[in-house]
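Section handout 9: paired folding examples.
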Amino acid sequence: MLLREKQFTFSVHKLITIVLLLVLTVLPDSLLANTLHHSMQVQLDPERSFLDVKNAIQLPGETESVSFALNRNLKLSVEGAELTVVNDSPDRQFRIYQLSRLTENRKVLLKYQGFIGNREKNDLFGMPDVIFNDEMLYLDGGRAWYPRFADHPLFTFDLYVKLPDDWQIISQGAPENSADGVRFQLNKPQDNLYMVGGPFQRFSQKIDVDGRKILLEVYFFNKDKSLADKYLSHSARFITQYSRLIGDYPFDKFAIVENRYQTGYGMPSFTLLGSRVIRLPFILHTSLPHEILHNWWGNGVYISYLQGNWGEGLTAYMADHYYSEQRGSDREYRRKALEKYANFAANQRDFPLQAFTSRHDQASQAIGYSKSLMLFHMLRRHFGDELFYRNIADFWESFQFKEASFQQLIESLAQNSKLDPQVFLKHWVNRAGAPELMLDEAKLIEVASGYQLNLQLSQVQVGDAYPLELPIRITFEQASETFLQRVSMKDKQLQIKLVFDQRPVRVSIDPDYDIFRLLSQTERPASLGRMFGAQKQILVYPEQASEKERSAWQALATSWQKRYGNVELVSDKSLTEIPAEGATWLLGWNNRLLEKSADRFNTGFQKMTSHRAVNFDKQDFSFNQHALVMLDADTMRQPLGFIGAQQPAVINALARKLPHYNGYGFLVFSKETVENIFKKALPVLNSSLEKVF
């Protein structure tokens, strides 16, 4: 999701005239109390990234003065109030102003113009702060192209846009076409104003959701217009589904807009998806429902970011995790979520969920998405589906178009239950870290009534115990069914005695990964994510490689250093053995250390042969035809990986591709096209939370 303070930029070789009429609407007193209204006329000169704006503002309340932020590149004048510069720090992109001596009707006319500027892509997860060219227009409030009032963050609007004939414009609300433009009206308080434009092909249909008409739109570039019908039909399905589960869809339209940058952003009543993204078939079942759901969580109920962003976790749980449930793969989904946390966030990079605002690296993603969604899963397991979803609907009814904190959400979900929301917040939201479980003892004793199972469990993390509801699964010798026992663990030690008339043959603690916890070393299979998340990645390149090959390995190391911040590149000539610390990558088939370490890659399911080939699960992959990645599957040893590639073009492609395969331990790519043709997650060889009798 695109957070409301995210900034963007742009630059277009057409003149676009935009008129924004932000008018008063009749709202409930509770929503009107802190809501302002604009009436804006905006002219954009895309070739210069130049803005010329007349903005008539109706201020609410009775205060005698009010402050706002505006892009510092915009020259400002005012009618109807006295204007004072409060903060003009040159190292900030905003200038802070104060309005005083307001007229009795509290109407103010602001006029401003100037060059809004251009910025480059500034992180791995986003896009440029400003997009404005002959291919695309993007504007949002993060750039403060309109005045942002800290004391009055919400507003309503009526937006009219005039554009060249070959362009379309998208904003919040349903469009109304006129002779010379398009108008958007929305009488629900908003915390940001978005505009996206470009030479799109528009497709639309209206759907009926329990008697309510909703407009669905697709704005795609011409080459992708064949995908429109699929996106319309899937959007109809998900909007209907979430409306019935949570409450009415909060807008009169939903649009899917194609972006030349590879994004997945959710704005009020539309989403911005990258060109390559929309062509991936699984996006219809993953990113699309995720961004639709943000119309409830994030754009329907606003998030109190200073108290922690709960929106991404709840959205991921109700969209992405729900999809995995439908496919029967939710256990694997939760395992991967816990792996992400263990690989990228645990220990030195961890922080409390209340400090999460947005995703900016792998650690923040693991906490704000993976940890957060697991907490909602635990709550659902605790409450049961009926109470969980009933309280979700009540939360939506109470907080739509208002800000809600993590505390308010948890308190709402805890209604009509015995859960203490303050205890939950203390351990799972306000506290960094995770419980670490150990199965200290598992003994099976024959008794007169059958078999007694004695278990001793402990939490070994630093600090207090986490309150847990632990699932314990018992598998029996003769029975086809298993027995699932849930036990409460409030202290760091727990002893359990269970008696059965059948003989248990296996006991598993939290076998379906229902608890947010730090996976033990033995529960985490060898994976690329585990390599990337190590405290240090040592990349060993072959000294005898050609200059072009060495340059490619250097570029790979530089790219990964920017992404992970833990990379060291060394020559195989400088080492006599695999380093004892960190995760080590052996680069290239001609690496001196490869022959010495080949045995570490050999298991019952994979083998590195002497003739530059690999056998995995009885399939052969050769040096001549393939580039491949394989890992030492034994997680009790220091992590070791191998990248079998030598051609610079292949190495460059793998540098981009491999970070997207975190959950896998064996990968094969076509040497010619560098397309993935085989991938496997490695098995967990031995789990310390499982005992076989």
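Moving on to protein 2 of 2.
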Amino acid sequence: MNRQQKRHWMAICLSLFTACPLTVEAAGNESSGGGQTEAIEEYALDDIVVTATRTPVEAFKANANINVVTRDMIEKRHYTSVQEALRDVPGVSVPIYGNSGETYSANGLMLNGTDHVVVLIDGVRANINGSSSTYGKMPMAELSNMASIERIEVLKSSASTLYGADAAGGVINIITRDPAKAKMRTTLSALWGSFGKEQYNLSHRGSKDGFYWDISLQKKSTDNFKDGWGREIADQLNSTNNTYKIGKRFGDMADVNVVYQTYTSNYLRPTGGWSDLVRDKQWGQYNTGEKNNTKLMVNYRQKFGDQAENHLSIFRYQHRQDELAWQRKHTVRAYTAPAIYHYSTIGLSDQFNFRLGERHQLVAGGEWYRDKTDEYNYAGTIFTGKDITTAALYLNDTFTFGDDWELSYGLRYNHNSRFGSAWLPSVTLGHTVKERLNYFVGYKRFFIAPYMSQLFSPRYGDPDLRASTGTAVEAGVNYRFNPRTVGSMKLFRRWTKDAFGYDAGKIAPISGQTGAYANYGEENARGFDLQMKTYLGDGWTASAAYTYTYVEAVPGTGAAAVNERVPRSAWNIGIDYEKGKFNGNLTARASIAKSGSRSGKQAISNTSAGAADYHTFWVFDVGMNYRPIENVNFFFKCNNLFNRLYTEQSYELDPNKAWYSAPGRRFEVGVEYSF
């Protein structure tokens, strides 16, 4: 064990040791008075989540590795995007390379060491699988209208049985607010920050005579940012993000609503690493682009007595992105051909929940969606009219037996129009003991199909790519030390065959140029996370989490380009304070032993041997709110408090070469008014 590893493990032991006195103190205060005990018990109540089994269940008893970003957290920490909120969730890797959120924001989301993650909005798939510009995900920059979000559930577990072939790493489920249960309310907010950041929001929601509505409008702009060395980097954005939801509730038995979202943006971003631009602004390469994306969803819910309920959703997503590459800023020296990414997704999903007696909770459903490339043109390589259709049926039963034992088992039939059929089973066994202890074990299978650009792009694609298959196992334990303090430990192991990615040395079969997507062999991943949260009393709450993830190539299966963007070790620490009209928070994130190279087909891992000082870092954020009267709130934030120079991805370890600096110290102030 080297010196750096020793320091990491000493830090883990120290954090757990220092947490223990908190639990002892809490236990000693349990009997200190009736009023205080009631407040503590209220604090200890668990969030209700739906993502783990597609049915409501306490997070403590979900038999899964799941975290929740609550509405209370969104308001107190003033997250300006889902991307920002996820950075405080243990085990989630979501690099932000610039200030705008547009720069390579789509391909950074990872759970349990893989970017094969399904993003849902109210349980309905939001991934767009058409092009490498989104890498099979919902573009993260579009998830910035936080006024309409009730909570974000993060399931760090292979969940292909319930959520489809792409959920090898897990699921992000964004639950929107229910205006049918809300009083009529209008909220105006304005935010101003460093690097020219401005953000204005208007939201209005309410209900009357069974009708309900939720309108959220946002205008956002940013300018060039500076990193921890004070270097100015071009990264500009002007965007609008509007969501309209209107529905009708028919008593308690039925509900229908329509959701329409529009996202438009104009942006400027560097094409490659920042450093070349800093050294030679005259010849640095920039991209200017426009987006015009829409999402339309129609949702229908029908209850059948107290035992059954059906959810039907129909959706259509359109992604329109056009870019030009420039060799000089604000000149007309553009490349010959623009980059055009036009693609769409249509689909439907149907879920039927049925309680059979007192012991069985059945979930059955199906989904069908078609990803289509309407137009794809990158540097003169064009493919149009390609589409892939996915159809699936699934069935899952949660069986309660004995003394609080629970067995969840299911099977999914998945058919991909290009890669054929796959059966994806899963089984999880869990046990809850006297509301204080929960432990579980699980087994899952998954299937991952390449995206259309990876298959059909004349420049980088390979039509002969094989789909990846794999197996995942997991185990975990949750424990309530007392009403104030809860802790958990979760473990996973994942085996992937025929993993695929970009190989810088491969000859593209269509174009004959160097660099293409390829199957590069087998890839294994394993890891665990430790979490603890405690109420310290007098308005103070503390939380700490440590995540370990190890991704490696399997020797003898062919050289492998393991996903090096995942830190081997990561920390998430938070302290929150609330008293009267004031609340504040301090959060810290650490990334330790992350590899810094992306140089193609090589057998590497996210070990400390390939890491540099700039990939091992601590970043501190602080925020506070002051509410002088009930309907007015003033807030302040400072991100990267100590102006740390760091990177969450670079092509080279040397920051003077191809380098993606994270923004330096930046401030935000704002005001919110509701009536």
